[in-house]
Amino acid sequence: MITTNIITLVYIISSILFILGIKRLSSPKTARSGNLISSLAMFLAILITILDNSTLKLSWIIIGLIVGASIGILMAKLVKMTAMPQMVALFNGFGGLASALISSQEFTRLANIGKFSIYSGSTIILSVIIGTITFTGSIIAFLKLQELIPTNPILIPFRNILNIFLLIITISIGFILLLTNTHVFIYYLIILGLLLGILIVIPIGGADMPVVIALLNSYSGIAAAFTGFALNNTILIICGSLVGASGLILTKIMTKAMNRSLMNVITGGFGQKITETQNSISQNAQTFKSINTVDTAILLEYSENIIIVPGYGLAVAQAQHSIKELSEILESKGCNIKYAIHPVAGRMPGHMNVLLAEANISYDKLYDLQQINDQFVTTDVAIVIGANDVTNPDARNNKNSPIYGMPILNVDKAKNIIVLKRSMNTGFSGIDNKLFYIDKTSMLFGDAKDSIEGITRELKES
Amino acid sequence: MENLLILIMIFALALFLGYELITKIPPTLHTPLMSGSNAISGIVIIGSIIILKNGDGRIMEIIGFGALILSTINVVGGFLVTDRMLSMFKKTENNHKK
Fold first, then answer.
1. Global pTM value
2. What is the predicted ipTM?
3. How far is CA A333 from CA A194, A229, A328, A339, in A?
4. Dihedral of CA A216/A145/A197/A229: which sign?
5. Per the CB < 8 Å rule, is B98 touching A328?
6. Is residue B24 classed exposed, middle or buried when 0-12, 13-18 and 19+ CB atoms within 10 A define those classes?
7. What number is the average pLDDT over the span A210-231?
8. Neighbours of A453 (CB within 10 A)
9. Whose CA is closest to A31, among B3, B28, B66?
10. With a CB-CB cutoff of 8 Å, which residues 46-85 of chain B face chain A?
11. Phi-psi category of A383—alpha, beta or left, where left has phi over 0 and alpha has psi -120 to 50?
12. Number of CB pairs < 8 Å for A and B?
């Protein structure tokens, strides 16, 4: 038998360890130990909860833990780094669904023993709604990122009115449930929450996924916190709100990097509207220069400062390792190489950094927007690989551009610019990039990986 | 009611603490931060254990068991994949030698 005091004490220790663990994430040097501390905190909290007051159903608990852990281990080991966003989305969804299930059962339990109150009821309702929205929202995000359903916005007519209508119904049912304590209404809430999750995420395009994943991350935390309220459990509240805050901050960073409001992202359909209006403009014949790998190699060989600007296209072409090889050769020839990473490069916050870290590129060479933007002026060559909208000078200069005001990498300030691209097609937002047409820019067409390997070959021979 | 107020206070303080902690994390580590914090939100695993224990009736046990499996995947997978990612973040001075 373990007294509640001991349990509370262990929960306090766990909470402190969680906070220390997150704190250590502030530097790549200490981050790994931080994650270890967090997992230790989790282990302690789970252990004390299992040991608490009875060994009742212990075998079920152990079986559940083994099954879940096996699936978790497999997923974590097998996932490719490019697929990280969809896996985090899936995990968010699982967490959200677990919260909703737990709260719905707590509701039944409280109703059975007649201890249902407005307070416990309202937290249960919030947890169920947010948890179910997180679940289906994450599943849709997963399907889009995995490209099992079309990544472009799927627009349902009157979707915003429909969503608001559904939300009002959901809240109303929540109130009816609170006041009448009618059992079946919790199931209506679950169904409505599941439906809302689908409808909220389905109109959001692939390029906006970083925002969606960050937001769902936050939701999964908030759902856990409300489950904590429902169960009267402090550690759930503490951890849930820490994660909720984390997701909200990342959401804010992402929307800021896109110069859009959260509302604008959620109402969806960003990519499509622009394609229609802009295509007519981009039809104007504009001239661009192209370059081959031989000339690129020569140009790079005589350059001192080089900045590489990677985008999601780099990951799609699986060119991380080739770029590492190219960097090494250039560094051996005395070039100074840096990487400029825009916050929305990749499919989730910080995705590009992980992909480059996987290719063994030292993290002190990775620079974010603020750190590197002033350095483009003194850069001999900027190499843009698979990045588009985040380098478009229109965001700075052209008030009529749909991306006007979005913070961009000042690639156009470099002395020479080389853009690796498959063709002259536009980026995700469908906007033509002015960078391609300025005098200093040369286009190197072809598969990014092949082009980079071509340049490396030339450099090796010279 | 008093208890509720204490819980709300904990909630508010943890939100502020989270805000302070997370704004200090560099963009380089944002993906591991997300997967790591995702694993932490798997703390609902505790809720599923409690429900499974206190559960009376088949349905409640089955649902509790399902929640337990889901949250265990979340916790174990989340921490492991974060560790896998963080192990790749290296500062490699010796690479310059070549």
1. 0.89
2. 0.93
3. 57, 61, 9, 18
4. negative
5. yes
6. exposed
7. 93
8. 18
9. B28
10. 46-56, 59-61, 63-85
11. beta
12. 361
